[in-house]
């Protein structure tokens, strides 16, 4: 540990400069205009991997953005750790709400402000620096493989094919991912579950063209009004989702599991104050922590239709649209939930409109074991670096590839994230604490060490 801290202290500034350079490339996977930037980022990641003492590092093209793969020399007597991360980022908009430009990183109040600082360039890059430190210390305790993808923020659509096609190359004993959050900087935690997802877009069409709202209004049905009615009907007054069969496969936690969850530090007043809300309003019968992690959700991500320009225009719009996502929990399946949603949503439509539902992407929820070698190694590593045993927590976000790793490769993932919920990922002014960045770099080599030890 002292040796790790020594190397870290001597190289701190360079580790930071290298991350800042990575953050300057706008690798927005959702926007085709950034295709070249995404590729440039993949190349930079590959070059960093090459500068480690790796056996090979390569860019694998896919039908979408490329996957960067690298491996150290693989010795059969050593256990193998596979690192997964993503080098793509969310779109930065709304740009006007950033205090400094999203792709010109600045350090303020001990935090790095930039799109991708926490999600996931900062967290992914900690693993590259950690292996660099381990190599300086001598022989690696474990074989290491890196899979760093460029499409996580758009649903990892092409990564499944990559995994299917390279099962042998990707064989490993554990997968480690830093792309989640911990409770706070004094309370380390390990994520033991992620929600799944079904992401849809709905279109409601009324008359064949926009109409004068005086001439026709009152008689001809308005698709925007109809869409609002239909969305409102998707939840009851207890905020339960009304889609028939929606909860059929949901695993309810035992009273004991719910009690354990309730013991983690959480302050509702602070939570509300940070978000500047007077109250939360989730599903009745569940705590805030439960609502945001072990319960499924249905949310409108965006809604549009009719006139949204300057001033007023009297119009009865022809069409209305919404992007709707449902977060899923074990054992809900995105295909089944999508079918249930589609059938029910269409049944809600009055005869005056037509409804279409299109599927964007989805992913399975996942729960990871806490009695695995991987979990125990991560727990020991965090205990050594923080001086405190980490608390297992279920997170509300999604990383669709984790369930695929389990189903295709048969390997468990350790979700050892160093972010904070307050890091504003996917929002303006995303940031990542320097404390968190360096703590990750310090902890990950210990994870390698303990994983090797416990695998013997
Ligand atoms: N890193 C996040 C997921 C995350 C965030 C997990 C916070 C736990 C806590 C990831 O990059 C992400 O944003 N995933 C998407 C997945 C979607 C595009 C399928 C998400 O959760 O919305
Ligand atoms: Mn992420
Ligand atoms: Mn993300």
SSE inventory with pairings:
Layout (H helix, E strand, L loop, with lengths): L1 H22 L11 H17 L4 E5 L6 E5 L8 E7 L19 E3 L2 E3 L7 H17 L5 E7 L9 H7 L8 E4 L11 E6 L1 E10 L5 E2 L10 H10 L22 H8 L5 H8 L12 H4 L5 E9 L9 E2 L2 E10 L5 H14 L6 E10 L2 E2 L5 H14 L4 E4 L6 H9 L3 E3 L15 E3 H22 L1
Parallel strand pairs: 3-6, 3-7, 7-17, 8-16
Antiparallel strand pairs: 1-2, 2-6, 4-5, 5-18, 8-15, 9-13, 9-14, 10-12, 11-13
Helix pairs in contact: 1-3, 1-12, 3-12, 4-11, 10-12
Could you list some keywords that capture this structure?
456 residues; alpha+beta; 6-stranded mixed sheet; 4-stranded antiparallel sheet; binds ligand BES; binds manganese (II) ion
Summarize the structure.
Helix content is 33%, strand content 21%. The chain is α+β, with helices and mostly antiparallel strands and 456 residues long. α1 (2-23) runs antiparallel to α3, α1 (2-23) crosses α12 (434-455) and α4 runs parallel beside α11.
Architecture overview:
With 456 residues, the protein is α+β, with helices and mostly antiparallel strands. It contains twelve helices and 18 strands. A six-stranded mixed β-sheet has the order 1-2-6-3-7-17, sandwiched between helices. Strands 11-13-9-14 form a four-stranded antiparallel β-sheet, covered by helices on one side. Strands 4-5-18 form a three-stranded antiparallel β-sheet. Strand 4 and strand 5 form a beta hairpin. The mean pLDDT is 97. One manganese (II) ion binds next to loops. The site of ligand BES has 17 residues, from strand 14.
What is the global morphology? globular
How many DSSP H or I helices?
Answer: 12
What is the CA-based Rg, rounded? 23 Å
Helix content estimate? 25-40%
| Strand residue content | 15-25%
Largest sheet: 6 strands, mixed
- Ligand species: ligand BES, manganese (II) ion
Order of secondary-structure elements: HHEEEEEHEHEEEEHHHHEEEHEEHEHEEH
Structural class: alpha+beta
Strand segment count: 18
Biggest sheet strand line-up: 1-2-6-3-7-17
Mean pLDDT: 97
* N- and C-termini, Cα separation: 21 Å
Show unreliable segments: none
């Amino acid at each position: 540990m002292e040796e790790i801290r020594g190397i870290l202290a001597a190289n701190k500034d360079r580790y930071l400069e290298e991350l800042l350079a990575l953050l300057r490339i706008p690798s927005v996977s959702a926007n085709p205009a950034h295709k070249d930037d995404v590729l440039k980022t993949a190349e930079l990641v590959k070059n960093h991997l090459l500068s480690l003492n790796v056996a090979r590092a390569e860019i694998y093209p896919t039908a979408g953005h490329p996957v960067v793969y690298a491996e150290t020399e693989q010795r059969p007597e050593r256990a193998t750790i596979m690192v997964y991360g993503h080098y793509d980022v969310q779109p930065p908009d709304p740009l006007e709400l950033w205090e400094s430009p999203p792709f010109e990183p600045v350090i303020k109040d001990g935090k790095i402000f930039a799109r991708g600082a926490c999600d996931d360039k900062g967290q992914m890059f900690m693993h590259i620096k950690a292996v660099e430190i381990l190599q300086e210390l001598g022989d690696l305790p474990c074989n290491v493989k890196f899979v760093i993808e460029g499409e996580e923020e758009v649903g990892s659509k092409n990564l499944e094919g990559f995994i299917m096609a390279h099962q042998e190359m990707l064989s490993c004993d554990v997968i480690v991912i830093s792309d989640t959050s911990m409770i706070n900087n004094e309370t380390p935690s390990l994520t033991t579950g992620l929600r799944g997802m079904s992401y849809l877009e709905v279109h409601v069409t009324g008359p064949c063209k926009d109409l004068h709202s005086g001439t026709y209004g009152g008689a001809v049905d308005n698709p925007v009004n109809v869409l609002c009615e239909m969305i409102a009907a998707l939840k009851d007054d207890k905020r339960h989702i009304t889609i028939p069969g929606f909860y059929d496969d949901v695993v309810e936690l035992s009273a004991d599991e719910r009690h354990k969850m309730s013991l983690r530090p959480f302050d509702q007043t602070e939570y509300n104050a940070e978000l500047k809300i007077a109250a939360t309003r989730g599903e009745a019968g569940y705590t805030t922590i439960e609502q945001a992690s072990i319960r499924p959700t249905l949310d409108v991500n965006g809604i549009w239709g009719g006139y949204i320009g300057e001033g007023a225009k009297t119009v009865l719009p022809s069409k209305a649209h919404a992007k709707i996502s449902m977060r899923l929990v074990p054992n809900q399946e995105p295909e089944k939930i999508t079918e249930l949603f589609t059938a029910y949503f269409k049944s809600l439509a009055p005869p005056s409109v037509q409804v279409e539902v299109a599927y964007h992407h989805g992913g399975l929820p996942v729960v990871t074991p806490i009695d695995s070698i991987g979990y125990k190694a991560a727990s020991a590593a965090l205990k050594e670096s923080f001086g405190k045993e980490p608390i297992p927590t279920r997170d509300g976000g999604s990383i669709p590839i984790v369930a695929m790793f389990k189903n295709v490769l048969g390997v468990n993932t350790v979700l050892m994230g160093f972010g904070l919920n307050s890091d504003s990922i996917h929002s303006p002014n995303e940031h990542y604490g320097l404390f968190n960045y360096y703590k990750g770099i310090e902890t990950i080599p210990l994870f390698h060490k303990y994983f090797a030890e416990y695998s013997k």
